Amino acid sequence: MATSAMLQINRQSRCHGVFARLRETARMAQAQVSRAALATGLALALLSDPVHAETAAAGTISVRGEARVSASPDMATITLGAVHVDKDAVAAMDATSAALRSIIAQLEALGVAGRDMQTANLMLTERERFDQDRGAPVSIGFEARNTLTVRLRDLDLVGRVLADVLDQGANRLQGLHFGLQDPSPLENKARRLAVADALARAKLYADAADVPLGPVVQISDIPASGEPQPRMAERAFIADAASSVPIEAGEIEAYAAVTVVFAIADPR
Predict the structure, then answer these.
(1) Which of helix, strand or coil describes residue 154?
(2) pLDDT tier at 167 (50, 70, 90 boundaries)?
(3) What is the pLDDT of residues 207-219, one digit of tens each?
(4) What is the fold of 75-179?
């Protein structure tokens, strides 16, 4: 009986050992399946992302290219006008309007086309002062303001125009800006040079890293702020209304920047 009991215990122990090994084997198999599924999922996710897919397929070189080019301006924009104050609102506006009519007539006589003149601001405001005796503001008159924006396509006229409009009643000069009638050629030249700069940089980096440079994968334009800007400070000052006003136009500068991604070619 004792021997029979011992044999039964040994058989049970062997069964438990077998089951334990089976459970361990099943657990390890499940873990391997989970790791394989995770790796597959990551690979699919990376390949679905263009950036990671591109990186996984082949290395890339990303560079920034820049360029600045300049040219002489061929247009000037002047903002000028007249301001008059009178106790009567109508009288103030009439005086300002008369000055603007004379200014426009003189500009037309100098060859400025109507399409190059535009009213920029027209205002009539009441002027007040604080009356100590009354303890309240009181009206002291009205201020009329009329502002005109003028484009000059002949830069030789700029000094003459500034002097002549003063003679015709202009008493406000709010700005003088030089520019280009068509900035596109200058901007496109800067863009081409920016791409060439990026290519030169990429070749340098590829040579330094001893890898073959492949084709362009992507080009991204980095937007510039605003239109081409004056390269030199513009100067305009009024010396004498009866003489021409000295003007220095300087140069206009255009800036362009791009980011270019190149593939690293297969060395085989």
Answers:
(1) coil
(2) confident
(3) 999 999 999 999 9
(4) Alpha-Beta Plaits (3.30.70)
Q: How far is CA 139 from CA 100, 144, 245, in A?
A: 26, 15, 38
Residue 87: what pLDDT? 93
pLDDT for 45: 43
pTM, two decimals, is 0.61
Residue 28 has what pLDDT? 60
What distance in Å separates the CA atoms of residue 221 and residue 200, rounded to the nearest whole number? 17
Question: If you count them, how many residues does the chain have?
Answer: 268
pLDDT in tens, 32-48: 544 544 444 444 444 44
Closest CA to 72 of 155, 146, 145: 155
The SS3 assignment for 151 reads: strand
DSSP designation for 159: H
Q: What are the beta bridge partners of residue 76? A: 152, 178
Burial class (CB in 10 A: 0-12, 13-18, 19+), 233: exposed
The yes/no answer on whether domain 59-71+184-264 falls in CATH 3.30.70.100 is no
pLDDT for 52: 39
Instruction: List the chain domain ranges.
Output: 2-51, 59-71+184-264, 75-179
Q: Treating both helix axes as pointing N-terminal to C-terminal, what angle do 89-109 and 158-167 enclose, rounded to 10 degrees? A: 150
